[in-house]
């Protein structure tokens, strides 16, 4: 009986050793948790349309009725809109019937500046004639360009319809070039569209102006001159 009991104890010990009880006490291995990043793609809302910058309007029109000043400013807005759209047919409707339209590349208006009658203005952008528009201020070399090229350099080289400052009979852009517009066009009303500058590094020396000259014929104000101005040395 004793031997049988000892034998059973030895057998039980062998079975327990085969089962590796140490392994039964080992904690279960942790499964590494992967870091998951969820990227939610949202549609970008439409950017709000920024309000147009305030426009400063300067007027120096002693003795001129406010109604006349407003009439000229309204006419100028129509002209600059036609220029923006390159709508020469619409522009021609503003041109002074007997006097035509003079184009001056710089502030100093000259008798030699080219003048076109209203019926020719409508087709100028399609005209491939090489015209002499005067001389470059920097070199004196002749400005020999088609009207389309002259337009892009000396009429609408920046978006004057969005100019932050507008004046009536008051010069805004100042350079070394003499502005004789009021002497050349006595009794005229001159509207100036002015950008004080674009790149801060130039400290305002890259300003641009477009002056629209109106003279009265009967009861209406007509366009007689387009003067481009910028910094000159």
Number of strands: 9
Oligomeric state of this protein: single chain
Helical fraction: 25-40%
Here the CATH topology equals Nuclear Transport Factor 2, Chain: A
Distance between the termini: 129 Å
The strand order across the widest sheet is: 1-6-7-8-9-2-3
Number of domains: 1
CATH architecture: Roll
Instruction: Write the element-wise H/E pattern from the N-terminal end onward.
Output: HHEHHEEHEEHEHEEE
Q: What's the CATH C level?
A: Alpha Beta
Gyration radius, to the nearest Å? Answer: 40 Å
User: Structural class given helices, strands, pairing?
Assistant: alpha+beta
> Which shape, going by the Cα principal axes?
globular
Strand residue percentage: 15-25%
For the sheet with most strands, the description reads:
7 strands, mixed
Mean pLDDT: 81
**Tally of individual helices:** 7
Given as residue ranges, the uncertain stretches (5+ residues, pLDDT < 50) are 9-13, 15-54
